Amino acid sequence: MKFFLLAWLVGLPVSGVLAAVQWQPRLMPPESGSYHGPLETIRLHIPPEVPIEVLQQLGLEVDNIDVTALVSRDGDYAVYTPQQPLEWGMHRLLLVEYTQDGGILERGSWDLEVRKSESFREAELNISASLEASRRIGEGDLDAPPARTQGSGSLTLQGRLADGSWQAGMQLPLIYNSQAARRLDGGEFLFDREQDSLTARAGHHPVSPESLILSGFNRRGLSATYTWPGSGSSITGFAMRGNQVSGFEEGLGLGDSDNRIHGAVASVRPLPGGSEALELSAAYLSGEAPELGAGVAGDDVSTGGDVWSVSADGLLLDNRLRLRGEYARSAYDFDGAGGEGGRARPWLLPAGELQALAGQAD
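RESULT FIELD:
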């Protein structure tokens, strides 16, 4: 397949074959010293003695994608301006020549980095806000009327910083209500940081993968995940609040030992290259949480226990057939007195989001 740089069809001197073999292009540095935008122009200097016959056989690739048709000429420079924003980080630029005998000659290759600034590879902050205000005109025949002027609103901060091998993110919703005891409070926030193969999260987030004992489980807490490079295998340890919580009063939600769940989840892909054709997983949970509907208002009875599961998930017939098997076992203290086992009841079911396979109690 041939690619053409048509901008050089006219206007260049023709030299001998030796010059065509020996010439080398140069990637020109951006004026600011580094690429500070995903749409910043990339310029390559092509020596003026290169024959037009050679220019017609040149192709330019960015991250293995042919962009030759988007290249224009500016004097002795080949100029490429991305039509779609390049992602922040490293990119591979390759200039090749397609020879008359069907071969490919690499004329130049470069690694370039797209950065937000000299300090950070990626830096982003998004703010969305809303505010509503109302004032009552009349209040006749009202006993103990609320405040005449009331206000409510929300403010959400989303940001991300990245450089080198680390990145950090933030999602922080703030809620304002002039009638509430705490006028400014928080929603479901999340802070995360990734360093090489280690990822840590604080706030509301799910723990993956989905299983019989972890299905749609999204709570406030802490977790850390280590992923082995190139293998697709990972292990996650976590400590989460047993039931839902909002606002800043509970902090990370881990201060109550009667309302806390901790455990670990491990996933291994044993086939070469971390193939998704087979994945083996194991999970263990332990802790306590108030059971919805138990006792009367204000009752502090908590139920808890521990549970574990192992599973195998495979893809066959070119990913057209999926086979999955899982075995889970639980020990369930249904009355909070300790030492009780459950045979046909779920373990820790504070909103129906934690489920365990019914089985003989340990």
